[in-house]
Specification:
Number of helices: 2
Number of domains: 1
Shape: flat
Distance between the termini: 34 Å
Strand content: under 5%
Largest sheet: none
Length: about 40
């Protein structure tokens, strides 16, 4: 729903992926998470 992403991000989430899952969107979310965990 409109505004859900902003609400979740403001609550402290690191990313947001909607349903139905788009494989490329999920892949990029995982890449961003990996990068955030492995970059000093």
């Amino acid at each position: 729903m409109e505004g859900d992403r902003e609400t979740c991000m403001a609550a402290g989430m690191n990313d947001y992926v909607t349903k139905p899952i788009n494989i490329l969107e999920l892949e990029w979310a995982l890449v961003r998470a990996h990068h955030a965990l492995t970059t000093p």
